[in-house]
Write a structure and sequence with these properties.
Order of helices and strands: HHHHHHHHHHHHHHH
Number of strands: 0
Structural class: mainly alpha
Radius of gyration: 20 Å
Low-confidence stretches: 1-7, 100-112, 338-362
Distance between the termini: 12 Å
Helix content: 55-70%
Length: 362
């Protein structure tokens, strides 16, 4: 697993850490097996993102959720494979919807596969996920289908934009609940279901996952702008794509709201500069520098922390232990971009520099 930024996660228990590492390795093997086809080109296309490396946050949540029941139950690893296959399928579709290869694709992918292949590869992964899901029982199918409905609804809402009387900030947060929160929520629910942890535990973990998913995306909004990791200091990642395509992420939405409320000429000018896009890179870089120093960016950072706090609070009904502490630590990890471990804790399970555990490498 690789989490965004220079961070890691400690299980604080070496036996549990070893089990989670083994579970992630099994998930990785399951992903490779599920993406095989009798047609070599389909295998190559379907395994493209599997081998490119991803966060594996959703499989990790399935494995941690399963620790509230029987973590060795036969449906746990397949559940983790299902949610990750679904996530990877959405990434192929996102590349087409965003009309960009900058965030998910490797350097040579855009010359090999066009949008039609990307869409069809995503469909292939959805089909493989559905095949595995059928073996997990009708309740798992209903849970996954409902999550997929929420995900697609979020995508449609983002494409349509807010209606005339809708607060753009509320609309954006609703979009994120569907696009970013639904599959992370279902990870917790399926992990609990597969392990026999019970409905109350499953409900708490689903609520936790939905809030954590939104916190993750809001934190990415902030980091992508604050760090300016692209060429010339321009943002890349989802925030960079959103700015290029004319979609506003939370920092820009807060800026617009402040400009409207206060009538500040400086804020209005900054909104206009950002709306002009990348056509004039020097002026745009200047505008981003001003946005990085603007209170709107801190406002967005506070919002990300608030969602992380709500995720942490959702864990209150669950029994204390290693799994709950790890889930609590994730709230800190995704919003702060650094390990949430005590000075005496074991080394992180995985850090961004380490990438996947050796046993889980494709």
């Amino acid at each position: 697993m690789t989490l965004p930024g220079p961070m890691g996660l400690s299980m604080r228990d070496r036996a549990v850490e070893a089990d989670v590492r083994a579970g992630l390795a099994a998930v990785e093997a399951g992903l490779l097996e599920a993406t095989k086809s009798d047609v070599p080109f389909i295998t190559e296309a379907a395994q493209h993102l599997v081998r490119a490396g991803a966060k594996r946050l959703r499989p990790l949540l399935v494995l941690l959720a399963a620790r509230f029941g029987d973590p060795d139950a036969p449906g746990v690893v397949p559940s983790a494979v299902v949610v990750e296959l679904t996530h990877l399928a959405t990434l192929y579709h996102d590349d087409v919807l965003d009309d960009t290869d900058a965030h998910h694709r490797t350097d040579d992918s855009d010359t090999n596969w066009d949008n039609s292949v990307a869409v069809l590869t995503g469909d292939f992964l959805f089909a493989r996920a559905s095949h595995l899901l059928a073996d997990l029982g009708p309740e798992a199918v209903r849970i996954q289908s409902d999550a997929f409905r929420q995900l697609v609804t979020g995508q449609i809402l983002e494409t349509a934009g807010p209606s005339g009387d809708r607060d753009p900030i509320e609309h954006y947060l609703e979009v994120l609940a569907g696009r970013a929160g639904s599959l992370i929520a279902v990870s917790g629910r399926l992990g609990a279901l597969a392990s026999g942890a019970g409905r109350e535990v499953a409900g708490a973990l689903a609520h936790y996952g939905e809030r954590l998913g939104v916190a993750c995306r809001l934190a990415e909004d902030v980091l992508d702008i604050a760090e300016g990791r692209g060429a010339g200091g321009l943002p890349r990642g989802r925030a960079g794509t959103a700015l290029r395509e004319g979609f506003a992420t939370l920092p820009v939405l807060y800026l617009r709201a402040r400009a409207k409320a206060t009538g500040s000429p400086e804020d209005r000018e900054l909104c206009e500069l950002l709306a002009a896009g990348f056509s004039d890179e020097p002026r745009y870089a200047e505008a981003l520098g001003r946005l990085r120093a603007h209170p709107a960016l801190e406002q967005a950072r506070v919002a990300a922390a608030r969602y992380a706090d709500e995720a942490r609070a959702a864990l209150a009904p669950l029994p204390a232990g290693v799994a709950r502490r790890a889930l609590e630590d994730l709230c800190e990890v995704v919003t702060r971009g650094r390990p949430a471990v005590s000075p005496t804790a074991p080394a992180p399970l995985v850090t961004a520099e380490q990438g996947l555990p050796e046993a889980a490498q494709p």
